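U., I forgot to send this yesterday:
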Amino acid sequence: GVLYHIENPFEALKRVAKVTRELAIIETVAVVVPGFEHNAICEFFESNELDGDISNWWAPNLKALQGMCRAAGFRRVEAMVGPPDEASLPKQAVSRYRATIQAWK
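Result:
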């Protein structure tokens, strides 16, 4: 649960990849933007928009999180906890959840 507190999450993932021997478990706040599930996007928080905490910066969607991990040097990435079922999400509203992925070297 640290990635969304990092100003440059991609650089942080590259550093994690460098020190990972086999497997990294990454858990972070993630976002679902209806209609953009097939696009790799990140929500940016300028100030304290996420839970009133000024140290929260980013919420990637699952596609962005997995893509950043692969680009950072992980060869395989799988979601352990992905977005909630579509039926439980508001149709037009942005939703946030806790994503957890496994990233292998």
